[in-house]
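Now for one protein, fold included:
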Amino acid sequence: MHSLSIKHANLALLIISTLLVGCNAVQPTVQNAAALAIAVSDTSHAPLSLPPTAQRVAAQATNTPFLPPEQAAQATANAIFTQTAQVIAPTQTALALPTVRAAEQATATAYQATLEAQLTAIFQTATATFLTPPPPIISASNVDRLRELRRLGRGAVNQLAYAPDGKTLAVASSIGIWLYKTQNLEHEPQLLASHTKPVRSVAWSPDGRILASGSGDGTLRLWDAQTGQPLQTFTGHTGWVFSVAWSPDGRTLASGSEDPILRLWDTQTGRLLRALEGHTDTVHSVVWSPNERVVASGSADYTIRLWDAQTGQLLRTFEGHSDWVRSVAWSPDGRVVASASDDRTIRLWDAQTGQLLHTFRGHTDIVRSVAWSPDGRVVASGSYDKTVRLWDAQTGQLLRTLEG
């Protein structure tokens, strides 16, 4: 009779948990798990070793700077499980043959209770880890663990936009649009280069199937995200297009230009729906409210304006900045608008009343961009002073300064 080592038994448990968690088509029983433990421990079988792919994935998962040690360990186990399931397939097939010796069957029975308990624990851990939405990768609590992975882009980089699934990064540059696969940043990026002047803005459709771009050539273009082929060209602006933004339902595209008009376009037909006039200088930033009823715009005329997306009516004008407004962003609940300006400040405005809620001071140069955390508690700002600063949205307190 061949004895089972704890090491071999545990390895078998890991393999079976892979089949339970990662391979929906395979539903092995506890008896099969026990039999597999014996098959793995049988000295007549060749030693089981992980393929190079599994070893590389496991090493990468363990060393990732974004995961706590516990999550990194679980990610490593998951990578090993997946690769090992492929290696063990012939052994699993062999289990269907009535060749297991009586002594081995007795050993399997003895281990059944232990295997069942450990399988249940592994399954629960895997479910909690991989089926529960993870916390935000970047938050105020872990921002000190950020690491530079790679420097991207060729030519001047004007804007970045992640696809909704996080698998593709679009980089707007002076050359065109570079598309990087985030799971393999070393892979040669795809270049979209139909614009005749630098691309200043890019934005993904809510479903991630289409990429929109705005350029110095005065046009907007829609691109097929899978093939990189241009789908439509929107013409009408008479100056550089500095900002593009999709409505949450994906039916309308907003654009801001130096002409200085805010335009709304039908994304299906390319038809101009409305031209919103009121700004007296370049429109640098446009963004939709979460309920898609209002469009906010920030301009070089020092103001932020809110527009009714259905009627085109100007709803409200926020005044207070003493220089160009470069970026605007809605809070996740749609109650507050944040603005970033060349006057080196970030300001928060009540969207309903127009009241100035906070003014964040600390940057020593132009503030180029502003964004909210998903929970609405933190505002991030990026500046020409080479820092990113995190602010408490409720108190206005500076939480952290990232330098680089």
Q: What stands out?
A: The CA atoms of residues 65 and 147 lie 7 Å apart.
